[in-house]
Amino acid sequence: MSGYIGEFISLLFLAVALGLDAFSICLGLGMQRLRLKRIAIIGMVIGAFHIVMPSIGIFLGKVISGQIGHWTELAGGVLLFVIGAQMFFSAFSHEKQRVIQPIGAGLLLLAFSVSMDSFSVGLSLGISGVKTALALGLFGLISMLISWAGMLLGRKVRGVLGVYSEILGGSILIGFGIRLIFG
């Protein structure tokens, strides 16, 4: 029983870490003073992409897992570490990013871009053999809720938390990567 609770808590923290990337983007979107209906749609699309992308990653991870055997946990840990490091260090990039309008194809591109890290995490989770339905449900739900929170907070605050959320999310992924590698 405690093994299930531990896995749930680990997946919950991982879902929050993945959602923090969407949070930082949605914080900026919220500063455009979007209507509440648009905020709801954007959050649902981002949540759906955080289910689809790791699904593809988990499927490919399970296929790869059969090929590389006992190295799977190490590979998953290294992958999480690299993704987390990329998130962490991208927070310090001073390059100006173009603003994508969250309508139509722009919304799909936005949701795809913020869910790319969840594809990679899904790949490493598929390699390590995690409970798929639980992971995907948490990834989708948490990223949707965090996206909504980011946009609503963005309506109130002007860009103070954006960089810090990416640093926190990257740090959490790095921690899970190290845990898989050494634990």
Automatic annotation (TrEMBL):
Record-linked InterPro entries: Mntp/YtaF (IPR003810), Put_MntP (IPR022929)
Parts of the chain that traverse the membrane: 6-27, 39-62, 74-93, 105-127, 133-154, 161-182
Protein keywords: Cell membrane, Ion transport, Manganese, Membrane, Transmembrane, Transmembrane helix, Transport
Subcellular location: Cell membrane
Matching PANTHER family: MANGANESE EFFLUX PUMP MNTP-RELATED (PTHR35529:SF1)
Function as written in the Swiss-Prot or TrEMBL entry: Probably functions as a manganese efflux pump.
Name of the protein this chain belongs to: Putative manganese efflux pump MntP
Lineage: Bacteria, Bacillati, Bacillota, Bacilli, Bacillales
